[in-house]
Design brief:
Elements (H helix, E strand, L loop, with lengths): L1 H10 L4 H9 L1 E6 L4 E3 L7 E7 L2 E6 L5 E7 L4 E2 L2 H6 L6 E4 L3 E7 H5 L1 H4 L4 H24 L2 H11 L9 H8 L3 H13 L1
InterPro entries: cNMP-bd_dom (IPR000595), cNMP-bd_dom_sf (IPR018490), RmlC-like_jellyroll (IPR014710)
Protein name: Crp/Fnr family transcriptional regulator
Pfam family, one: cNMP_binding
Length: 191
Amino acid sequence: MQSLINKIKNSISLSSQAEEYIYSISKEKMVSKGEILIRAGQTVNKTFFVTQGSLRSFCIDKEGKEHTLQFAINDWWISDFMAIYNNEPASLTVECISDSDVIEFNAQKLNEIYIQFPEFEPFQRKNLERHVVSLHKRILNQLQLTALERYNLFLEQYPNIEQHVSNYHIASYLGITQQSLSRVRAEIAKK
């Protein structure tokens, strides 16, 4: 928990009351590889901050194919934000892909922090801005880059995650087949 508090304090001046509130609306959890934190179709009222480990969010299309939308590693947030903010059932599943430590927040109470502690708003606004930029880059990369370029960006963005995730997860994130991923890796190995 202290790592998150320190991260916040590096961005804004955090009062002791605001810090106490953060502790009161959260709980630290150890989650095991394979554990599902959010399941598609359920009501979502939680968001997670990863202090150590790795999680992923994914959806399943009508043909039963998985599509990984996000990996969350140390100091990243993850949830089904569409479900939270649109007050609808989850369209994503959030799965733990390595033994991890997370901080679980009640999403509604986390959202209320702005009312009680307006100084927290710039910190969260910056998080949301980074998230939107990240999503836009991801969409543009899927549309404009080759599989090799997307794979290299993946390795840059998620250093050391390959040891924790299956080839299937990486391929589904990149929007390619596992066979194409093997070809991309073979191409890199030739260089």
